[in-house]
Amino acid sequence: MALSGKLIGHVSISKKGDVFHDLFRHNPHNIVAISPDKVHDCELHEGERGVVGSVICWQYTHEGKKKSSKQIIEAVNEENHMIVFKIIGGDLVEELYKSFTIILHVEEKGDGKVATWTFEFEKPDTSVPYPTSLMDYLCNLIKDLDAHTTTN
């Protein structure tokens, strides 16, 4: 019996949503230069950068292990600074989850701005852990990127 799950993480940031939206949508390869200890490569496999239907492959280190994630851009909302990545290959869906989608959304909240990661996933059974470690990893990546963009 498969088990559906959802996990949400919020990170307060100093930059507007368009900065992160543009970075992840059109210039994800720049993340490699900003945070090389976490992200090692981001390659476009099909389509055009940032276009719905495009396929990208990330190489990264998580929990001390080199991993990969092949993703298709499923949806983009410029106005709401949102991008939806469906994982179609790599460690997450080949070893752990039956399906996995990652959504990045940046919005104004009170006096500040918040980057929100949302994971929607399907576990094959109860032995597969919730992806809390990956959520921590991506929230820390946002903090790294925010620190970099505030100094540049």
From TrEMBL:
<feature type="domain" description="Bet v I/Major latex protein">
    <location>
        <begin position="2"/>
        <end position="152"/>
    </location>
</feature>
<protein>
    <recommendedName>
        <fullName>Bet v I/Major latex protein domain-containing protein</fullName>
    </recommendedName>
</protein>
<dbReference type="InterPro" id="IPR051761">
    <property type="entry name" value="MLP-like_ligand-binding"/>
</dbReference>
<dbReference type="Pfam" id="PF00407">
    <property type="entry name" value="Bet_v_1"/>
</dbReference>
<dbReference type="GO" id="GO:0006952">
    <property type="term" value="P:defense response"/>
</dbReference>
<dbReference type="InterPro" id="IPR000916">
    <property type="entry name" value="Bet_v_I/MLP"/>
</dbReference>
<dbReference type="InterPro" id="IPR023393">
    <property type="entry name" value="START-like_dom_sf"/>
</dbReference>
